[in-house]
């Protein structure tokens, strides 16, 4: 009797462990849902729907494979819900800016790390126009393009100029104030933006003694150590 009191709990634990171990190989999943921080995972629905009807063990393995191959996902978690449902929660990467391919008129949406997340036909993100082919999804853009995108992102925040274009190895931006600004494609971003801010403040200075306005300035060239105003 004494031994039975010890053995019964052990047997019960062994049975539970066996059920937990074997269940994934017998339970069949009939519903898979997917959500991200932005809502339903519409781009993944078709891929995940193909896994319904399979056993839990296989679904777990294949969902990890599908999500691991998605460049737009930074992290994910999966959860089995009794009796036959599977829930997928993903954290999607968010595009920060866009490269517009002038040859095919498409936008490559780029994240903060410089990787292309998707190719779309329209975008309201800060953007740089390029004459080269837009990079493919998952590719890392060049350092020059990444530098230009970060410049235009800050220009949009400060001066509401959403678009720039790369010409002759430089970034050209037309500000709403009627001034064209030329940036190099490398260097210290903060120094360049700081120089532009200082010049624009001087152009709009109310004090005539400090204002740069003896002649109308239509172009600011920041490619040189000393900015050139024309």
The biggest beta sheet is recorded as:
9 strands, mixed
**CA-based gyration radius:** 28 Å
Taking the alpha carbons of the first and last residues, their distance comes to 101 Å
Helix-strand pattern? HEEHHEEEEEEHEEEHEE
- How many β strands by DSSP? 13
Discrete helix count: 5
Low-pLDDT windows of residues:
17-22
Based on CA inertia axes, which overall geometry fits? Answer: elongated
Question: In which range does the helix fraction lie?
Answer: 25-40%
> Class by helix and strand content?
alpha/beta
Percent range for β-strand residues: 25-35%
Trace the largest sheet across and list its strands: 7-6-5-8-9-10-11-12-13
In short:
The chain has 230 residues and is α/β, with parallel strands linked by helices.
Can you describe this structure?
The strands form two sheets. The protein has a nine-stranded mixed sheet with strand order 7-6-5-8-9-10-11-12-13, with helices on one face. The chain is elongated and about 85 Å long. The chain contains five helices and 13 strands. The termini are far apart. It is an alpha/beta fold and 230 residues long. The longest helix is centred in the N-terminal third of the chain and has 25 residues, at 2-26.
């Amino acid at each position: 009797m004494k031994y039975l009191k010890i053995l019964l709990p052990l047997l019960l634990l062994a049975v539970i462990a066996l059920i937990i171990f074997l269940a994934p190989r017998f339970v069949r999943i009939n519903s898979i849902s997917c959500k991200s921080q932005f809502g339903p995972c519409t781009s993944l629905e078709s891929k995940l729907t193909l896994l319904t009807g399979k056993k839990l063990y296989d679904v777990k393995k294949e969902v990890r494979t599908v999500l691991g191959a998605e460049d737009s996902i930074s992290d994910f978690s999966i959860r089995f819900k009794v009796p036959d449902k599977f829930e997928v929660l993903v954290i999607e990467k968010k595009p920060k800016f866009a490269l517009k391919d002038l040859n095919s008129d498409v936008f490559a949406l780029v994240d903060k790390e410089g990787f292309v997340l998707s190719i779309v036909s329209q975008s309201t993100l800060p953007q740089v126009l390029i004459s080269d082919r837009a990079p493919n999804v998952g590719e890392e853009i060049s350092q020059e393009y990444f530098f230009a995108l970060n410049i235009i992102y800050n220009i949009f925040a400060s001066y509401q100029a959403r678009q720039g274009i790369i010409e002759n190895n430089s970034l050209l931006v037309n500000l709403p104030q009627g001034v064209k600004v030329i940036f190099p494609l490398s260097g210290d971003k903060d120094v360049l933006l700081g120089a532009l801010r200082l010049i624009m403040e001087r152009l709009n200075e109310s004090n005539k003694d400090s204002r740069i306005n003896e002649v109308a300035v239509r172009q600011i060239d920041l490619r040189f150590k000393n900015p050139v105003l024309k």
